[in-house]
């Protein structure tokens, strides 16, 4: 869980980002302020892991804040001025969000701030390859423009639903529509933890909250289980019981 601090001299803009933070499971709102001096004290005291930082502020600009911050936490810049992007990246910021900020763009920036899990070192004398060398933990899906591709981590996928030659990938707080069939997606995903339970649905077994007869629940979403897929699902559930 990343403790987030929102710093913006426009109260409305700050409240919008705070509402976005509350929708994302791996973020928690630690503070919201219009005062960059107060925010700097929070960071220096180690009370925030990630700061959403406006650039144009009267007492202390975002770039001045970055200099004083000294890399004590991760920072995502938020501004209406694209000309500051290059200088911001010189301070190794996580991302640069241009206002007005849409939720899906905010989520992608937040995902970049997630810590990368450490890969355990192999035991002495072991000849096994590291997990990172043998397993792929993500896939890329086509975006809305010709040469745009979005990275999706396997661990974030709740379920996928077919829409003809398109499909919807459902993630926490986000839905991605991409030009791909469910069959093609199934060939890309590891099984387990993914399992096709209906001609129109693939689910993550790790995200199941309940199985009730011919219905499986992923969170609050009720998903029908097709007859041809039913026994395979029941077998997995029995094996994990």
UniProtKB/TrEMBL annotation:
Listed GO MF terms: DNA binding; phosphorelay response regulator activity
InterPro entries (alphabetical): 2C-system_Tx_regulators, CheY-like_superfamily, LytTR_DNA-bd_dom, Sig_transdc_resp-reg_receiver
Positions where 4-aspartylphosphate occurs in the chain: 54
Keywords: Phosphoprotein
Name of protein: Response regulator transcription factor
Limits of the Response regulatory domain: 3-114
Coiled-coil residue windows: none
Residues covered by the HTH LytTR-type domain: 141-212
